[in-house]
């Protein structure tokens, strides 16, 4: 089996027409790779197009205010990616004279650029013979070559990187790496792949031994923490509300949200109202729950149980903002959905 040759031929016939493949300039390649971490292409595409329209060059991205970057990123999640993206744009624009580092080792020094992203940019933009290894690559190699190493184990990345490197044609690094990612995304998918239509079905160890759903092996499961949020949607006598920027470490750093009362367990209405009153620095007229059932919002390792509460006051809040202004702020997607539903009705 000439795996590399067959894979590249498949790619050239089946590759998707994606906007970041129009040329090999590193800016769109970098932008797409950062966006598509933990994000499907179909979900990430409109974000990429909006970013390219708003920031056609890395200089435009560097010059943009952080709030605009976060607002355009809103809904993609993992907001540290957006902050790192912005910081790296500034480094490239202001320190490196608008030029990306020209090789894998230099790219690795950029903030938010790990081994996978550096390998993708280096191979696609510069033709450097360095393999990419992500979830798609783990799956393709594990199935075709019958690798039963737990991909969450300490030595897995080194093993799979070495295997990918041994298969990589030096002068076709860009096509090979993109082919590996595309094959995993379109053909060798996680669940119910169409193995009968696969070009490797006569050689694939997983298919010939009936282990397609068992490979790749991933034994370690991340513990999920439950958190209980009560958001206070405040309305003063002018109809203004309160929103604050989230500082410090933790989820949604740099985004805005409503005043928050978090409890270690789910509390009943009477308990929650008492807690809300104890946190307010103004006299409330009414406190009532807006949501009948908690809104469930799942993150990579957290499950949020969210209730929204309307809190009214006859006072004028000195730091209140009107609803139109609040709608322009970058907020977590779960708040954006709430605001669109309740404020635009």
A few lines on this structure:
Keywords: 4Fe-4S, DNA damage, DNA repair, Glycosidase, Hydrolase, Iron, Iron-sulfur, Metal-binding. Helices cover 44% and strands 11% of the residues.
**How many beta strands in the DSSP annotation?**
7
For the record, what is the CATH homologous superfamily label of the largest domain? Hypothetical protein, domain 2
CATH fold-level name of the largest domain: Endonuclease III, domain 1
Tell me about the biggest sheet? Answer: 5 strands, mixed
The percentage helix is 40-55%
Query: Whole-number radius of gyration?
Result: 24 Å
* Overall outline: globular
Distance between the termini: 60 Å
CATH class of the largest domain: Mainly Alpha
Keywords: 4Fe-4S, DNA damage, DNA repair, Glycosidase, Hydrolase, Iron, Iron-sulfur, Metal-binding
Function: Adenine glycosylase active on G-A mispairs. MutY also corrects error-prone DNA synthesis past GO lesions which are due to the oxidatively damaged form of guanine: 7,8-dihydro-8-oxoguanine (8-oxo-dGTP).
Pfam families: HHH, HhH-GPD, NUDIX_4
EC number: 3.2.2.31
